[in-house]
């Protein structure tokens, strides 16, 4: 759709915008009331400066944040608002400028939101924001005519209403595919086993949040990088990172990246979180369940992790029943090996930690039938003591070494030989990532 007033949320069906508050038109003169001396007298005892910046009225809409997340195939821009807005913009297209207009209502800009932003990602030259009493105008100036998509995300949980712009990196997807194909070709040539390490969440999807603003997406990336380093020290194992930066990847794309690299194993790194404040401790390892979770806590955890696509604005995907039937035998074998991998990893990571056991749940990211897959819940990020561990480089290296030892033990228990790695192979190789 080219132009036109867009619904509040294109993908999630957000609520209609609230009634627009009355603001005097440009032709209406309002007689000023000289209350400054009185305000100074009233506010001085409270420690409020008379020259402090004036905040937007509670009934007004505020542009509260502008963030961008460069990825290997896409740069995502996220504009957050204090409430739902109705905007005008094309759904998608190819252009060297993307314009978003919010007409007919006053929009204020938060103090930390810049008027002009220079991403420096090699794709978008600048982002300008113009807010006024009659609306707002946002413009992205692209270096070259480039494909883009614009959509809204409804407010939910701790996320405000957002307008998202995804700008495609020219040649990014092709470059990523070539890199993954290169990894796959080295597998047979160098006789190595490929382990795909997936850092959960990323970009706008922060995951769980712990005390002192410890974010799951940052912890998982740190542990994933440390794990890749440890695995690459093992002769005959080659690790790749599914996500090597702060950007969003849809859940299905995560295991598809591993499939393109012809991975032998898939390990997704996460942090647990309890609904009870400060509660929870220990580590647990999951593999896929086709019949639902065995307990409510596991089901709740799977629901939270599977909601990552919704946070990132990815439409729900229907399962292909024909494929499911054809893959039943292959999936059964992958599940058996996944359980063995989970047991081997848990034995190591709980040597000096509480073991919460091996569990099953319907995690989308574990649904490939091409290799054994597990999801490691390293520790409880909501627990202050465990959050401190998770943010510690020493703990990150420790648990990565333990997982790597568990992976090596799995290959031994499964009777899978590890060939000698070629010294010319990449070190801590990364696949880059998937389409944000």
Task: Write a compact overview of the structure shown.
By secondary structure, the protein is α/β, with parallel strands linked by helices. The protein is built from ten helices and 16 strands.
**Terminal-residue CA separation:** 22 Å
- Mean pLDDT, to the nearest integer, reads 81
CATH C-level of the largest domain? Alpha Beta
Instruction: Report low-confidence residues grouped into runs of 5 or more.
Output: 1-58, 421-436
The proportion of strand residues reads 25-35%
- N to C succession of SSEs: HEEEEEEEEHEEEHEHEEHHHHEEHH
Q: Could you give the count of β-strands?
A: 16
Looking at the overall shape, the CATH architecture of the largest domain is: 3-Layer(aba) Sandwich
Task: Estimate the helix proportion, in percent.
Answer: 25-40%
Going by CATH, what is the homologous superfamily of the largest domain?
Answer: Zn-dependent exopeptidases
Structurally, how many domains make up the residues? 2
> If you consult CATH, what is the topology of the largest domain?
Aminopeptidase
Rg (C-alpha, Å):
25 Å
Number of helices: 10
The global form is globular
Structural class: alpha/beta
Keywords for this entry:
28% helix, 10 helices, single chain, globular, alpha/beta, 436 residues, disordered N terminus, Aminopeptidase, disordered C terminus, Immunoglobulin-like
């Amino acid at each position: 759709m080219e132009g036109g007033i867009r619904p509040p949320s294109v993908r999630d069906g957000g609520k209609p915008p609230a009634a627009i508050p009355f603001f005097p038109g440009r032709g209406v003169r309002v007689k000023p009331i000289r209350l400054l001396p009185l305000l100074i007298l009233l506010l001085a005892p409270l420690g409020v400066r008379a020259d402090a910046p004036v905040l937007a009225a509670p009934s007004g809409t505020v542009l509260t944040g502008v963030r961008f997340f460069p990825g290997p195939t896409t740069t995502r821009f996220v504009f957050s608002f204090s409430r739902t807005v109705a905007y005008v913009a094309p759904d998608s297209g190819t252009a060297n400028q993307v314009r978003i207009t919010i007409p007919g209502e006053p929009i204020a800009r938060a103090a930390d939101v810049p008027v002009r932003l220079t991403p420096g990602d090699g794709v978008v030259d600048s982002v300008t924001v113009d807010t006024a009493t009659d609306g707002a105008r946002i413009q992205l100036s692209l270096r070259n005519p480039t494909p883009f998509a614009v959509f809204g995300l409804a407010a939910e949980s701790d996320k405000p209403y957002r307008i998202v712009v995804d700008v495609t990196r020219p040649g990014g997807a092709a470059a990523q595919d070539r890199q993954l194909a290169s990894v796959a070709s080295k597998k047979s040539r160098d006789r190595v086993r490929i382990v795909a390490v997936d850092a959960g969440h990323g970009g706008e999807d922060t995951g769980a949040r712990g005390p002192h603003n410890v974010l799951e997406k940052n912890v998982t990336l740190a542990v994933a990088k440390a794990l890749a380093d440890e695995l690459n020290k093992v002769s005959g194992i080659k690790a790749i990172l599914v996500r090597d930066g702060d950007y969003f990847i849809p859940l299905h794309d995560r295991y598809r990246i591993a499939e393109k690299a012809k991975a032998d194993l898939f390990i997704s790194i996460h942090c647990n979180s309890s609904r009870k404040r400060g509660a929870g401790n220990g580590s647990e390892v999951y593999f896929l369940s086709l019949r639902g979770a065995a307990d409510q806590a596991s089901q709740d955890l799977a629901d939270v992790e599977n909601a990552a696509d919704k946070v990132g604005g990815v439409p729900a995907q229907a399962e292909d029943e024909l494929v499911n039937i054809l893959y039943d035998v292959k999936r059964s074998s992958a599940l058996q090996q996944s359980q063995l991998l989970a047991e081997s990893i848990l034995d190591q990571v709980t040597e000096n930690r509480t073991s919460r056991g091996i569990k099953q749940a319907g995690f989308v990211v574990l649904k490939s039938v091409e290799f054994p897959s597990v999801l490691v819940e390293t520790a409880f990020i909501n627990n202050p003591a465990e959050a401190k561990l998770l943010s510690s480089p020493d703990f990150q290296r420790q648990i990565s070494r333990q997982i790597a030892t568990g992976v090596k033990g799995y290959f031994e228990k499964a009777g899978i030989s590890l060939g000698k790695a070629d010294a010319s192979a990449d070190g801590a190789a990364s696949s880059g990532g998937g389409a944000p």
